[in-house]
Specification:
Layout: H1 2-20, E1 24-32, H2 44-55, E2 60-64, E3 67-71, E4 84-92, E5 95-102
Parallel strand pairs: 3-5
Antiparallel strand pairs: 1-2, 1-4, 2-3, 4-5
The protein binds copper (II) ion (CU).
Amino acid sequence: MTKRVLAAAGLFLSFAAIAQQGDSSYKGTISDSMCAAKHVGATDKDIACAQKCVKGGSPAVFVIGDKVYKIANQESVKEHIGHKVQITGVITGDTIRVDSVAM
Ligand SMILES: [Cu+2]
């Protein structure tokens, strides 16, 4: 009996933990760390520059309004450099972990 209650409590706690670190959706622009908010227009020129900067070695960043977030998993956005996107993921401090990207 006690065991069953404990198991149920454990299950509840793990669900609570998952809900707490659950994903949210954020609209923004993928840019590069060098130009960051300069590329939120997402024009062809912005896209070309952002792609050039990322190729040149500056990491991709995610810009929401005037906030610039680092991207923990860079490979997840490499198809979307310079694009306006909706990212589903988790923001911790100044870094976003990307789970999915939609245009
Ligand atoms: Cu650039």
